[in-house]
Amino acid sequence: MRKEVWFGLSILAAIVIALVVLMPAPADITNGHLGLLMLALIVVTIMLGFPTAFTLMGMGVMFTYLAYRGMGPQIAIAQTLDLMVLRTYAVMTNDVLIAVPLFIFMGYLVERANLIEKLFKSLHLAMARVPGSLAVATVITCAVFATATGIVGAVVTLMGLLALPAMLKAGYSVKLSAGAITAGGCLGIMIPPSVLLIVYGAVAGVSVVKLYAGAFFPGIMLALLYVIYIMLVAKISPKSAPPLSEEERRVTLPEFAQIAKDTISNRALPGLIGAIKGKRNINVPMGTLFNQLFITLLPGLVFVAIMGLSYKIVTAPLPQLESGLIEMGFASDSDTSSHFQSGGLQEPEVEGGLAEPEGAAVAESSVKPPAEAAVEEAAAQAPENRPAPTGFWIMLAIGSVIFAIFYTMFTFARLEIFKMLLSSFFPLAIMILAVLGSIVFGLATPSEAAAMGSFGGILLALAYRRLNLAMMKESVYLAAKTSAMVCWLFVGSSIFSAAFALLGGQEIINNWVLGMDLTPVQFMILAQIVIFLLGWPLEWTEIIVIFMPIFLPLLAHYQIDPLFFGLLVAMNLQTAFLSPPVAMSAFYLKGVAPSHVTLNQIFAGMLPFMGIQIVAIVLLYLFPAIGLWLPSVLY
Question: What pTM was computed for the model?
Answer without folding.
Answer: 0.74
